[in-house]
Every structure is written in C-alpha cells, then in structure tokens.
C-alpha cells in the first residue's frame, strides 16, 4: 500500500447552515486530519457561501487558521465586493453559484484578469453537497459549464475546481484547470486518475463534510507511490498552494 | 470478515467486481443485478433475462457471492410469484431486490412480500430522499416505513444511508424490521454515527453500491466512523450474516 504525505486543497471550517459536522472547528479537524497523515491544506469558510459580510468571514477564517501551521486560509472574493483589490493571499476562492453571479460576467472576468495579473490563482467550489441532498428551498446549480470559459479568460493562471464528479472534468480542456478528488469516485478510480491530464489532479477530502480516508483510499487503489504522491501533494506544491 | 450486501453485476462487470472485492478484503458480497438496464419498467422477459444473468454471475463466484432476484411489481402478479419462486428455489438467490419500478406503498408488492415472509428472506429496497432527480415511482424512507408496517415480519434492508440522510433514519426508528445499508452517495461524515445512535448498530449493514462507487471510499465510511469496534464488526458482517443466514 502506498503511503503519502497529503496536502488537502479542499477543507472547510465553521458552521454549515444545513447541519453540524463533528470536525467543523480547526481545533477538532486538524488533529483528526493528522491521524491520516494530512498536515496541511487550504481552508475555506463554511459560512462564506451564504454570508453578506464576506470581509468578516475572511477575517474570522484567518483567525481560525492562524494557530495551525500548514493550514492556509482561503479567503473568498466576489466581483461585487471591492475589497478583492486589496487581497494578499496567493489563492482566492470564488463561489459564483452560492453568491449568485456568473463566472463569465464581464465584471467577474475583469476582476479575474486584474488578480491574475498580480499573480493570484483561483479556487472554485462547484458544490458543497450532492445536489440531490440540498435543502429544497436552497438549490444551488454548479457552474460546470462556465469553467472552461473562465479558464480561457485567465489562460496563464491556475484555476482549481473543487468537488467535481467523474466525467465532469472532461468538459474542461483548458490546460490551466485543475481538479480535486473528493467527489470523484468512478469504480475504476486508478484508471480514471491515470487518464486525467498529468499534474492536474489534486488531493482534496472535503472534510469536515466527508470522511477523510475516503479520499485517501483513492490513492491506495493501484497507483504507484510516485503517482500517488503527485496527487497527494506534489501537484499542489507546483501551484504554490502549500505553505 | 466483511460482507457487502449491495453490489451490482452490471453487464459484463461481475468479474471486475469480484476481483476488486477480493483486493479490498471483502469476503462475501451480494449481486443485486443490472437493475436499470431496461429503464424503470422492465418486461417479464427482461426481468427473467436479468435474473438468469445474475444466476450465472453468482455461480462463477459461488464461494463468495449470492444474488438477489430482481422484480418489477408492475409485471402481472402471477409472473411475480412464478419468478420469485423460480429464483428463490435456486441456491444462487437469497433475497429480492426492488429498485424504482413501483413505489413501495403499492399493494402490487404484496404477492412477493408474502413469499418473503413465508421463506423468512430479505427484501433489499432502493431508497433516497431527493431534492432533484427523483425517479417517477422512486421510494423514500417514509414509503419504506409504510411497507415495513404492512409487513412487520419481513426483513427489509433500506438502501443508501447517505442518500436517505438523517431524516431517513428518523423515518424508520420505530420499524424494527428495517435495517439500513450504508451503500452509495458521497462519503458524508457523521451519518453512520447518527444511525448507530438512533437505531443501533444491530440495524445497520455495510454495502458499497459497486460499481457505482468504489469499495475503498465506501469502506472508509465505516472504518472512520466514531463507533466501537464491536459496532463496526456488526455493521461489516455480523448483522448481514444474521439477516441472510449466510
């Protein structure tokens, strides 16, 4: 069995509005991740998806992460909130469907190009839950169809897409699109991971929503040590996502 | 020991499932058939063909595998009885699988529910609470609870813990003849623990939903759950062995 040191690009902290999770605080999640060899990651705010005060959510997220070396806060930006011009973090989160804007809107593209010119990269969460399990009064449609166009608008900037299903990733041919494996679960997982463009698959568990070891199991199903390590952390390092 | 109560022998993939099960340390598994190959209204001929294929697939892996007979309650009642008895008389079959052909509140299920009661065998029924993408006759946990109360002596396995969610567990708390399988959907954290707390580990059985899902990720839901080793052992095999008598 392969053993990897993983950097998790798909972590969240805080209270998700629709149900509590056991590991929703950093104090509980980080030791739990350590049990599985995960000692670093990108952490976003559960509350940010539906919050109107994104600045406060980013500040709260930074406070939550600051005591945990290796875990970097992933602040959210939104084209309607002008503070995006002041962002210092390398990676920035976009939640277009949750915050009701389009990735292909002119204002979004203008923001993205300006941030790309300053060296930032983007993380987009397609979904946080299986659509079939969403609250009936809060159905959020994943912006799958807009990823390709957005990536083409910032061709030299990495666009990391979280929580895509197997097959969904095949809709994005742009070479700057990366994706994680939390929702990616075809039966022939090893073949599917090998079939993906080299270097563009990242390790993400989607903790605390999902069990951590489910994502790790996908690296232990037949990949070589080198292949598994690339997905576990090397590909993220190449994007300068890890601290 | 691990017994997977929920795998599918989709066309041409049975041997792949068996090989992967062995590689993941799964000692025994159930083939539930290629239940959606002909949509939600398979004919009598199609049902018989699918069951014959399951029988052949099970026979090749008989040391580790058994099958469930797949039925469409909208087929004529005399066919339901004939096909159920035909399959359940074979050593390869030890239960009946229902998918999305008919909502399980329908009395069209009654002919084979009576057979299951007489033979003391298990019904494994697909189930989900869906906000979107629901099949027209698909059953949800409240429907399963209705069926369970009508047939309190029939052992029912309600599929897909991560599809039915917390509300689904609550729906069957007072239906002691209903167990829940852990198969399918994303590996959402905390649901195994919730089910153990509310209905007890004795009423939960491990399933994967392979080939719709990977064995590794589905096993991880049980292995990572914050439950005792005794509870984990019940879920991984003891409960299913007791239910199935295998």
For the record, the count of structural domains of chain A works out to 1
Shape of chain A: globular
The name of the CATH topology of chain B is TIM Barrel
Main beta sheet of chain B = 8 strands, parallel
Encode the helix/strand succession of chain B as letters: EHEHEHEHEHEHEHEHH
Radius of gyration of chain B, whole Å = 16 Å
C-alpha end-to-end distance of chain A: 27 Å
Helix content of chain B: 40-55%
Under CATH at level 1, the class of chain B stands as Alpha Beta
* Structural class designation of chain B: alpha/beta
What is the mean pLDDT of chain A? 96
Low-confidence stretches of chain B are: none
Radius of gyration of chain A: 17 Å
Second-tier CATH architecture of chain A: Alpha-Beta Barrel
Q: Report the total helices of chain B.
A: 9
What does this structure look like?
The complex is a heterodimer of chains A (243) and B (246). By secondary structure, chain A is of the alpha/beta class. Chain A has one domain (6-238): Metal-dependent hydrolases (TIM Barrel), CATH 3.20.20.140. Helix content of chain A is 28%, strand content 16%. Chain A is built from 7 helices and 8 strands; from the N terminus they run βαβαββαβαββαβαα. Chain A has helices spanning 26-34, 54-65, 106-117, 147-153, 189-195, 212-217, 225-238; strands spanning 6-13, 38-45, 71-73, 91-94, 121-125, 159-162, 177-180, 201-202. In chain A, strands 4-5-6-7-8 form a 5-stranded parallel beta sheet. In chain A, strands 1-2-3 form a 3-stranded parallel beta sheet, with helices on both faces. The longest helix of chain A has 14 residues, at 225-238. Chain B is α/β, with parallel strands linked by helices. Chain B has one domain: Metal-dependent hydrolases (TIM Barrel, Alpha-Beta Barrel). Helices cover 42% and strands 14% of the residues of chain B. Chain B is built from 9 helices and 8 strands. Chain B has helices at 14-23, 44-60, 77-88, 110-119, 141-150, 161-171, 191-199, 215-223, 229-244, and strands spanning 3-7, 28-31, 65-70, 93-98, 122-125, 155-158, 178-181, 204-205. An 8-stranded parallel beta sheet of chain B has the order 1-2-3-4-5-6-7-8, sandwiched between helices. In chain B, helix 7 links the parallel strand 7 (178-181) and strand 8 (204-205). In chain B, helix 6 (161-171) packs parallel to helix 7. The longest helix of chain B is centred in the N-terminal third of the chain and has 17 residues, at 44-60. The model of chain B has no long low-confidence stretch (mean pLDDT 98). Classes of the chains: A alpha/beta (243), B alpha/beta (246). At the A-B interface, helix 6 of A face helix 6 and helix 8 of B.
């Amino acid at each position: 069995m392969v053993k990897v040191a993983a950097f998790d690009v798909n972590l969240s902290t805080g209270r998700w509005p629709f149900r509590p999770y056991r590991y929703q605080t950093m104090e509980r999640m980080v030791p739990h991740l350590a049990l599985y060899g995960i000692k670093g990651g990108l952490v976003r705010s559960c509350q940010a998806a539906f919050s109107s005060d994104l600045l406060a959510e980013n500040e709260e997220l930074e406070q939550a992460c600051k005591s945990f070396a290796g875990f970097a806060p992933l602040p959210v930006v939104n084209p309607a909130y002008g503070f995006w011009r002041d962002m210092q973090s390398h990676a920035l989160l976009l939640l277009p469907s949750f915050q009701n804007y389009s990735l292909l809107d002119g204002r979004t593209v203008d923001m993205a190009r300006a941030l790309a010119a300053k060296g930032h990269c983007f993380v987009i969460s397609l979904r946080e839950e299986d659509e079939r399990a969403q609250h009936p009064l809060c159905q959020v449609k994943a912006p799958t169809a807009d990823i390709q166009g957005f990536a083409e608008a910032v061709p030299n900037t990495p666009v990391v897409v979280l929580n895509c299903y197997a097959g969904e990733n095949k809709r994005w041919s742009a070479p700057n699109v990366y994706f994680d494996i939390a929702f990616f679960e075809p039966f022939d997982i090893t073949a599917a991971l090998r079939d993906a463009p080299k270097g563009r698959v990242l390790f993400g568990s989607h903790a605390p929503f999902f069990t951590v070891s489910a994502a790790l199991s996908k690296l232990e199903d037949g990949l070589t040590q080198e292949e598994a390590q690339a997905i576990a952390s090397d590909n993220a390092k190449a994007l300068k996502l890890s601290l | 020991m691990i017994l997977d109560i929920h795998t599918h022998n989709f066309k041409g993939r049975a041997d792949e499932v068996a090989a992967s099960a062995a590689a993941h340390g799964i000692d025994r598994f159930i083939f539930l058939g290629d239940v959606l190959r002909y949509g939600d209204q398979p004919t009598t001929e199609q049902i018989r063909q699918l069951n014959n294929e399951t029988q052949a697939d099970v026979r090749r892996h008989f040391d580790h595998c058994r099958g469930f007979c797949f039925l469409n309650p909208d087929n004529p009642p005399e066919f339901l009885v004939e096909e159920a008895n035909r399959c359940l008389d074979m050593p390869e079959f030890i239960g009946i699988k229902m998918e999305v052909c008919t909502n399980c509140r329908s009395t069209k299920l009654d002919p084979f529910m009576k057979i299951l009661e007489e033979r003391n065998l298990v019904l494994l029924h697909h189930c989900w609470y869906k906000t979107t993408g629901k099949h027209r006759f698909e059953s949800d946990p409240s429907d399963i609870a209705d069926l369970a109360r009508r047939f309190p002596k029939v052992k029912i396995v309600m599929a897909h813990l991560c599809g039915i969610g917390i509300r689904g567990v609550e729906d069957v708390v007072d239906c002691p003849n209903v167990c829940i399988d852990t198969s399918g959907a994303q590996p959402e954290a905390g649901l195994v623990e919730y089910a153990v707390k509310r209905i007890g580990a004795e009423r939960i059985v491990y399933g994967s939903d392979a080939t719709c899902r990977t064995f590794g990720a589905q096993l991880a839901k049980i292995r990572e759950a914050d439950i005792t080793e005794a509870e984990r052992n019940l879920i991984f095999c003891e409960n299913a062995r007791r239910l199935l008598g295998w």
